[in-house]
Specification:
The chain is mostly beta strands and 172 residues long. The chain has one helix at 4-21; strands at 29-31, 35-44, 51-59, 62-64, 68-76, 81-90, 99-111, 122-133, 139-148, 158-169.
Length: 172
């Protein structure tokens, strides 16, 4: 997949910041409940063999404007691993409803192992998810993401993931 998901993240977060955050301070810090998330997914690609993925993530205890720092570690059944740090945006900051849409952009480091040859260590992971927030703050999300080197190399193969995610407040 091309950079469509990354562009969606950029447009949603900057539009939200302009309309909702900038009147009082575009990048003001707001406290959030930190979240730990667990994700199981199926890797898809026209170029590579399918594999399964376990993803462990952490959403920060704060956000600046519409940008919430997020961290992720991915391990796949074909021996690949990825670690990234990036930013997440969600409609839950705009509308007070249990249903939400979220987008994210995370640059990170990829170790191929026996997994897909994505032509480089630096890989960008962009995601789009639809979810539901329970009364206790836990969330369930269906997400679709794409990871590639964003055309920084001659070849730019990608790997897509369709996943289900469970996140809960971090009591750490």
């Amino acid at each position: 997949m091309d950079g469509t998901l990354g562009l969606i993240w950029l447009l949603t977060s900057l539009t939200d910041m302009t309309l909702n955050d900038c009147p009082s301070g575009c990048l003001d810090t707001e406290k959030q409940e930190p979240q730990v998330l667990y994700q199981l997914g199926q890797l898809q690609s026209d170029e590579f063999q399918s594999a399964n993925e376990f993803y462990l993530g952490y959403d920060s205890h704060r956000r600046r404007g519409p940008f919430r720092p997020t961290y992720g570690l991915s391990l796949t059944t074909d021996g690949a691993a990825w670690f990234g740090i990036g930013w997440k945006w969600s409609t839950q900051y705009v509308y007070d409803t249990p249903l939400f849409i979220e987008t994210s952009m995370m640059p990170g480091l990829y170790m191929q192992g026996d997994g897909a040859d994505l032509d480089g260590t630096l890989q960008f992971r962009s995601a789009l998810g639809i979810g539901y927030t329970f009364d206790n703050g836990s969330k369930v999300t269906i997400s679709y993401d794409s990871m590639s080197n964003a055309d920084f190399r001659d070849a730019s193969p990608s790997r897509e993931t369709l996943a289900i995610r469970w996140s809960t407040n971090w009591e750490g």
